[in-house]
Write a structure and sequence with these properties.
14 strands
Length: 198
């Protein structure tokens, strides 16, 4: 069955099932590929296994730059069951450099968010994974500073439920990478191959 769940927005949908059984999705709230102005990532919720969706909250903000674009995001649950989102983006018109990553954490199933900026120009992507130890892992990528300039996919880690991030591990040369940890403990990563020769 096919139908429009959220109209006129919704790029890069990221689904998470909450401990209470609800399904939430984080979406970019503009119908463009990041060329909107004053755009953010929103959280929508379904209580009927994905048939109907209602708006719950705006995950990100950018009061320091009202016309900025918050778009690239990774979302998941920490060991406490809190929603954690990492979101980067662009200045108006997709001007570089990219915005610093905003970390947003919700302890009430996405109704409200505590936000702060990380000192990072990485671009988060996909799911934030919670490991058995409680440590969080997030796939990111960035453009290297050396010539020729290329994208590099990495995994960043958090040891404090998503408040701070570091300890990057390089996956490969490439863009967005989706990571998966198998029950055996092995990791799989699939990355988009790309290079930027500018």
């Amino acid at each position: 069955e096919f139908y429009v769940a959220i109209d006129n927005k919704g790029l890069w949908p990221n689904l998470t099932r909450l401990p209470n059984g609800e399904i939430v999705v984080a979406v970019y709230n503009h119908p463009s590929h990041g060329t909107g102005s004053n755009s953010d990532v929103e959280l929508w919720v379904s209580n009927d296994e994905g048939l109907n969706w209602t708006f719950r909250s705006q995950i990100t903000d950018h009061p320091e730059e009202p016309n900025a674009i918050r778009m690239n995001h990774a979302v998941g649950l920490n060991a406490k069951g809190e929603l954690v989102a990492l979101v980067s983006g662009y200045h108006e018109g997709q001007k570089r450099p990219v915005l610093l990553v905003q970390c947003a954490i919700s302890s009430d199933n996405g109704a409200t968010w505590q936000r702060h900026l990380l000192d990072s120009d990485q671009v988060p992507f996909g799911d934030i994974l919670c490991l058995d130890s409680g440590r969080l892992a997030c796939s990111t990528y960035r453009q290297t500073s050396s010539e020729p300039r290329r994208n590099e996919a990495t995994v960043y880690y958090s040891n404090d439920d998503g408040r701070t991030w570091g300890d990057p591990v390089r996956i490969c040369e490439g863009g967005e990478a989706h990571i998966l940890r198998l029950s055996t403990g092995a990791w799989l990563a699939a990355a988009r191959s790309s290079c930027v020769d500018r």
